[in-house]
Specification:
Helix content: under 10%
Order of helices and strands: EEEEEEEEEEEEEE
CATH topology of the domain at 51-153: Immunoglobulin-like
Number of helices: 0
Largest sheet: 6 strands, mixed
Structural class: mainly beta
CATH class of the domain at 51-153: Mainly Beta
Distance between the termini: 49 Å
Oligomer: single chain
């Protein structure tokens, strides 16, 4: 996961971000001055950290007349340690649009998930492009993003 140096007392500390349970240890590979050494293996359990997933993401209709309305929607679910997913209510989901021919995503709205984890927002269609959604996470939830869907404006 990384490399760090010891201080003058031979102590070290490093911080890592993890998104799953697992085993950790520290190792010093043998060199000309010191023999190899490794710390005891410790298990880290991320209890209370939800994995999130955006499901049923879409933008409809897929083909729309210019000036017509497009609904961007989806479902944010969460689970802990592989348990069955449940709804993720009251979470901010950011909706982004990439106009055709552009390389820069534009944030179009922030919508809050309902009690059932669902979110939706209507937009006036003025150009072709692609939509995606991001939940950037919080103290108890990991981030996730949706697939990318294209809308053809005629």
């Amino acid at each position: 996961m990384g490399i760090t140096d010891t201080d003058r007392y031979g102590e070290f500390e490093e911080t890592f971000t993890s998104d799953r349970d697992g085993y950790w240890t520290a190792v010093h590979w043998e060199d000309l001055e010191y023999l190899a050494s490794n710390a005891p293996i410790a298990y880290v359990d991320l209890i209370g950290t939800y994995k999130t997933q955006i499901q049923d993401f879409g933008a409809s209709p897929g083909t729309v007349k210019k000036g017509g309305m497009v609904t961007v929607s989806g479902l944010l679910r969460r689970s802990v340690d592989g348990s069955a997913p449940t709804f993720a209510p009251g979470k901010p989901v950011r909706l982004y649009f990439l106009p055709s021919g552009s390389t820069e995503w534009k944030q179009m709205a922030v919508v809050e998930t309902g009690h059932d984890g669902r979110f939706a927002k209507e937009f006036a269609a003025d150009q072709d492009g692609s939509w995606t959604a991001w939940f950037w996470g919080d103290d108890g939830h990991l981030r996730s993003n949706s697939s990318v869907v294209r809308v053809d404006v005629q």
